[in-house]
Structures are given as C-alpha cells and as structure tokens.
C-alpha cells in the first residue's frame, strides 16, 4: 500500500534547531531581573520565549491608549541576546476597563449567570465589542512588531475555549445554523424537533442549549459545540487577517489545550494554522504519564498532517491540576521533552520561564523556580538545553513524507467526544477520551508508531485502522471505511460506533447502523454493565462497562462471552471484506486484555515495533529528517539498557558500532546508519 497523503499542505514553519524556552512574563518583574533572566537564558541555551500572553491591561491601559515602552525594551534585550520572540496577542484576558465598558462582552453560563472580570478568559466570543477590541490590539501589535527580526511566530490568543450562552451567542448561533441547514424544515428534521414539541417556526426562537427543565436536545447540544468551535476559529481568522494586513509574514499559531479540553474541532483549525501547537500537562505521576505525552504528540502531529508541530507549553512540575502539583524529576522533564520532539515537535517550550512570585498560579513552577537558578531543577533545564543543541540537525524535516512513519491509524474526531457528552445514553460510563486513549496506550505498549486520522481522512496507506467509540458516522464515512477494507485494509471497530448518523439519529434495523454491513453483524440488544462488574471472554480476556447481543451476519466469531447476560454469544467477530477484514469488539476490554488483543493483531498483520524487544520502561521512536533517520531511546527505568544497532549518538557524540547502553533514566538520539534492525538485549 502507498503511504497516506498529507491531509494538509506542507507548512511554512521550519527551524534550523529546536525551539527551547517558554512563556515569559517580564511585566511581573523589575528590569534588573530581566537582565538576570537573559543571562540565565543564554547559559541554558534558551532560544525562544513567548511574551505578551496576558499583557493586555499593560499594553492598552485605557481604550485606544497604548503603552509599548516596556515591550519595546524587552524585545530589544531578547533580540540582542539572540533569543527569538513568539509574540502573543493578549486577547484571552480582556482588561477590567474593557469588561466594565462592555458588560455584554462577558460570557454567560447556561444557567444565565454572567461572569465578571477578575480572572482570565472572561470573554463572550460572539460579542461585537470583544471581537473589535481583539482586532485592534492584534493590529497594533502587528504594526509595531510584525517586521521585527526577533519575531519567530505569532501566538494568537491562548487556549481558545470559553463557551458563552449569551444573547450574542444566540444571534451568532442562528446565523451558523442558517448556513448549515438553510431552511427551518431542514433544521427541524436534523434536530428531530417533533419530539417534545420543539419545532421551530422562526429562527429567532432558537437558543443555545441553556439551562432547561430536563434533558437537552442532543443534536442541538452537539451543533452548539460545533458552532462554538467555528465561531472561535472565525475570531482567530480575524486576528490573523489583521496581522497579515499589517504586512507581517511570521508564521501564525494558537495553542490547543490537551487532553482535558475538547472545545475545538482540531482538524479544521489545524488546516488554517502555520504551526499546530499544543499545551500538554501529564495527567498522572506514574509511568503512564509517558503514554500520555506520546498520545498528545501523536494526535498533534496528525492534526498537523504528519508535519512538525510545536509543544508550546509543558510543565516542570508533574501536573498543574489540583492536588498534583508535584515536583517532576529533571531527568523525567528531559525524557518527556524528547518524547514530544521524537514525535515531531520542533521544540520543547514550557509554562513558564520564571515561576511567579504571587498570583493565582504561584505554585505552577518554572524553568527558574522560586528557589532560583542554583537548584537541581534548573541544572536539568541547562542539560535539556545542551541536549536540544546537540540534536539540532534532527530539526530539519524530511523534504516530503511524514516526520514519523506509522502503519496504524486511530480514527479521531471531536464529534465522537461531543456526542458522548450528551445526557441519557444507554450507559453513563461511555467515555470517548478513555476509549481512544486506551487504544493508543495498547499500541504504545506494543512499541508501534501511531497516527490519527479524521473520519474523512485518507486511509489507504495504513495497514490497520482502529475505530474506538465513534458514535456518529455518516454513510459516506462508513463507505470510506468499507472501501479501505475492500482494498485490503484491516479495520477494527469498537462498540457504540456508527450507531447514529452525523445528526445523532439512530440508524434503524439493528446496531451498529451504518457499519452493520461492513462488520457482518447485527446487534439486536444492548446490555450495558454495572461498572463494578467484570466479565470474561472465551480467550480469557476481561471486560466491563458494556456487552451486547451480536448476531453474526457473515462475520466469523473470534471470541465469545463467558458470562453476563449474553454468555455463549459472540463478543469479538471478524468479517472478510474484499481483500481485507473488519473486526468488531462489542465490549470494553480491560487494558491488559486490550494490550494483548492489539499486540496479537499487529503481529498477525506483520506490523513491527520500532525496536523489537522493548517494554514499558524502554521507549523508542524513529523520527525522520531531511538527511536520515534518528532513533530516540528513552530509558524510563532504573537499570541500564543495551540496544544493538549502529549509528552516532548525538547526545553523547559517541559512535555506536554495534550496540549502545543507555543509562537508567537516560536518553540517546542515534543518527542511524542505513536501516538497521535494532534489538534490545534482555533487561
Ligand atoms: C496553561 C495555560 C497557562 C497556564 C498553565 C498553568 O493551560 O495556557 O497560561 O495557566 O496552563 O499550568
């Protein structure tokens, strides 16, 4: 099979070395600290900082009155030190004067509560005054700094994501719905408004899904999320247009927040960005944090069309989430950073350069902590700067082709997540994020590189396509999966996929509606399980949350249920389709069983791990560059690990004749000689 086509055009963003640095808030400090900062940045090898993210009230202290003096000075100081500037537009945090002058531009919750200023992200995205103020400040910044030689990129806004249910939102939502449905009849049909007397006879009757007496209309709820994403994208486009109108040609990005937020439909956003960038914070202190970093990276690289992307924020503490503000060992910070880079990030950026002295995020850490530069943490930062410098050649991306080569893809779309956030599903434990993440984790544990694809994406180059819980699927999307299998691909679909069409209407005649024919099954009863219950399958697998009555209609039974309501009936099936196969997994396999299922599947398909014999403590990733391939070896364990292969380790500068030993918690990045078949000596 040929390799998949890029889903978006090649980007203008490239760097001759990896970006290293983070958010920098000089406005919180006096100028003598700036000089110390710049000296420390130079020593640590920092080459890029993001400034201005939350500086609106200082840049424009009163409407239309700008105060750029401090920013002029810091930009010059940074430039003089050879440190690039990623300039943010500060629109995530409107100043108090703005909110007081335009109370209608504050966001409204579903229950009608209008928020007040005093934190951040207090904006109503559809409020005309807010949008105008955003355009104005973006233009003022672009006029002043758009051609500055220090400018590496524009960072528009910060983590778009505030939902608003105000009257401004109603107006914009209706306009969006008119574009989508054209007629009220079409909207009434799509929203199934015959149910509960919801038929609309005028567009003005339609509201965002505000607090109501009982359950919301599920199609309205998902449409509202689709609208919010599009509306925020419009806001980004407006700022980008101002930047370009001012003549600035620097690449434009905005930082997505992962993975706890699903406010945006990332495929459409990514297609409009010069750099796809994310903020990523580990969700656990355990080793599973490494799978989390890999998950975020693989998703983001995929949104970027398998091109390089940028890790805009990570943390020097394990997680900024409440309760987990725990120190991260410097060696882990280094391995995390290289994990993102191995999977295509053009750098390792952090939140933030210097930990603040006060304020609501006083405990969120920094490359320079409260303790100062004389600390083990900052020595780790300096070591990371050295390592990123030593692997600079890796940053040069391949002239064509993906930066990481994967034979396996997971279907991903925000619609799938939004659909499962609706109320009153057959189980309260259907979790899109968990379904996708556990599938990715199983592949990570098998050492297999993974891409993500949208339901409309090009599947042709993959050996295996996995579809965890994609509740809404259109006929066209189902047909694309079927064509892929017909042509020799293997598709694996999990329960609660393709049950409904894109409007969340259940497809009648047996589940899973649009996928029935492809899978060669007809599900006639759903048997959700109490989350405390574990059932077993005939191959010894353990499963939970879900079971169903699967009637084969052409598919072969691979595994049956051993217990539960459907004991003795099929649990996992396989259907021969043209030159390929379509599998159906009708329950939620426990992680260990899922790991085994996925490992067996890839093995049988001849999909090989990056390095044979790896395990959870030894992560290997191959990144492609213009002049060759680079094997990243991350030893997360506490014993040295030896791998057989050849090349040059760029981190230590040593030639690898036929083996390399990586120290406990250490890293190596080997420029490979030829196409070596690496293997691991047993631990
Ligand atoms: C990010 C955000 C930063 C900061 C950080 C705290 O999501 O972009 O501004 O709040 O979290 O860890």
Structure description:
This protein is an alpha/beta fold and about 675 residues long. The protein has three domains: about 325 residues, Alpha-Beta Barrel (TIM Barrel), CATH 3.20.20.80; about 200 residues, Class I glutamine amidotransferase (GATase) domain (Rossmann fold); about 60 residues, Immunoglobulin-like. The protein contains 17 helices and 29 strands. Strands 5-4-3-2-1-9-8-7-6 form a nine-stranded parallel beta sheet, with helices on one face. A seven-stranded mixed beta sheet has the order 11-10-12-13-20-19-18, with helices on both faces. The chain has a five-stranded antiparallel beta sheet with strand order 22-23-28-25-26, covered by helices on one side. Helix 1 links the parallel strand 1 and strand 2. It is globular and about 75 Å long. It binds beta-D-galactopyranose. Beta-D-galactopyranose binds next to loops.
CATH class of the largest domain: Alpha Beta
* Low-pLDDT runs: none
The percentage helix is 25-40%
Structural class: alpha/beta
End-to-end span in angstroms? 36 Å
What's the total number of strands?
29
CATH superfamily of the largest domain: Glycosidases
Short description:
The protein is α/β, with parallel strands linked by helices and 683 residues long. The chain contains 17 helices and 29 strands. Helix 5 packs parallel to helix 8, helix 6 crosses helix 7 and helix 11 packs parallel to helix 12.
């Amino acid at each position: 099979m040929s390799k998949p086509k890029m889903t978006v055009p090649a980007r203008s963003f490239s760097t001759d070395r990896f970006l290293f640095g983070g958010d920098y808030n000089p406005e919180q400090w006096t100028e003598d600290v700036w000089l110390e900062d710049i000296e420390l940045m130079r020593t640590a090898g920092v080459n890029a900082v993001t400034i201005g993210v939350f500086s609106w009230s200082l840049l424009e202290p009163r409407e239309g009155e700008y105060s750029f003096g401090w920013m002029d000075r810091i930009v010059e100081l940074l430039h003089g030190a050879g440190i690039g500037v990623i300039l943010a537009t500060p629109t995530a945090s409107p100043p108090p004067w703005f909110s007081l002058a335009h109370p209608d531009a504050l966001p409204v919750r579903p229950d009608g509560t209008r928020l007040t200023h005093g934190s951040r992200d207090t904006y109503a995205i559809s409020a005309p005054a807010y949008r105008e103020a955003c355009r104005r400040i973006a233009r003022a910044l672009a006029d002043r700094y758009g051609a500055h030689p220090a400018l590496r990129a524009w960072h528009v806004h910060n983590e778009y994501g505030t939902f608003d249910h105000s009257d401004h939102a109603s107006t914009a939502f209706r306009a969006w719905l008119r574009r989508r449905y054209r007629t009220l009849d079409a909207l009434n049909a799509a929203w199934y408004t015959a149910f509960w007397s919801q038929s609309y006879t005028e567009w003005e009757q339609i509201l965002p899904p505000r607090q109501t007496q009982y359950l919301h209309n599920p199609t309205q709820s998902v449409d509202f999320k689709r609208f919010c994403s599009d509306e925020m994208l419009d806001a980004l486009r407006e700022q980008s247009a101002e930047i370009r109108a001012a003549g600035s040609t620097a690449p434009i990005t905005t930082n997505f927040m992962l993975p706890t937020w699903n406010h945006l439909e990332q495929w459409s956003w990514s297609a409009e960005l010069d750099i796809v960038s994310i903020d990523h914070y580990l969700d656990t202190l355990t080793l599973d944090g490494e799978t989390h970093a890999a998950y975020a990276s693989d998703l983001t690289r995929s949104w970027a069309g398998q091109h390089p992307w940028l890790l805009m924020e990570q943390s020097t503490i394990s997680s900024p989430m409440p309760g987990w503000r725990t120190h991260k060992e410097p060696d882990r910070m280094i391995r995390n950073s290289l994990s993102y880079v191995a999977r295509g990030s053009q750098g390792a950026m952090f939140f933030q350069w210097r930990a603040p002295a006060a304020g609501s995020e006083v405990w969120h850490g920094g490359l320079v902590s409260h303790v100062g530069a004389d600390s083990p943490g900052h020595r780790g930062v300096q070591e990371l700067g050295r390592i990123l410098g030593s692997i600079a050649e890796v940053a040069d991306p391949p002239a064509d082709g993906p930066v990481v080569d994967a034979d396996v893809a997971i279907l991903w779309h925000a619609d799938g997540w939004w659909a499962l956030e609706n109320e009153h599903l057959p189980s309260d434990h259907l979790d899109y994020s968990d379904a996708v993440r556990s599938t990715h984790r199983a592949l990570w544990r098998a050492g297999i590189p993974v891409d993500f694809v949208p339901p409309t994406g090009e599947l042709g180059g993959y050996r295996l396509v996995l579809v965890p819980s994609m509740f809404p699927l259109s006929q066209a999307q189902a047909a694309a999966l079927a064509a892929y299998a017909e042509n020799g691909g293997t598709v694996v679909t999990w329960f609660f996929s393709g049950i409904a069409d894109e409007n969340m209407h259940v497809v009648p005649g047996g589940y899973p509606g649009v996928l029935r024919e492809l899978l060669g099954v007809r599900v006639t009863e759903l048997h959700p399980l109490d989350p405390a219950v574990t059932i077993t399958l005939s191959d010894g697998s353990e499963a939970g949350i879900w079971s169903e009555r699967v009637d084969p209609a052409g598919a072969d039974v691979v595994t049956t249920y051993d217990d539960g309501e459907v004991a003795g009936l099929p649990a996992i099936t396989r259907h021969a389709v043209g030159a390929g196969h379509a599998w159906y997994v009708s329950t939620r396999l426990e992680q260990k069983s899922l790991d085994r299922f996925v490992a067996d599947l890839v093995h049988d398909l001849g999909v090989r791990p990056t390095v044979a014999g790896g395990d959870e403590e030894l992560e290997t990733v191959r990144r492609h560059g213009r002049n060759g391939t680079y094997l990243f070896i991350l030893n997360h364990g506490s014993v040295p690990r030896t791998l057989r292969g050849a090349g040059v380790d760029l981190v230590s500068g040593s030639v690898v004749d036929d083996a390399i030993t990586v120290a406990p918690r250490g890293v190596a990045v080997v420029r490979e000689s030829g196409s070596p078949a690496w293997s691991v000596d047993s631990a």
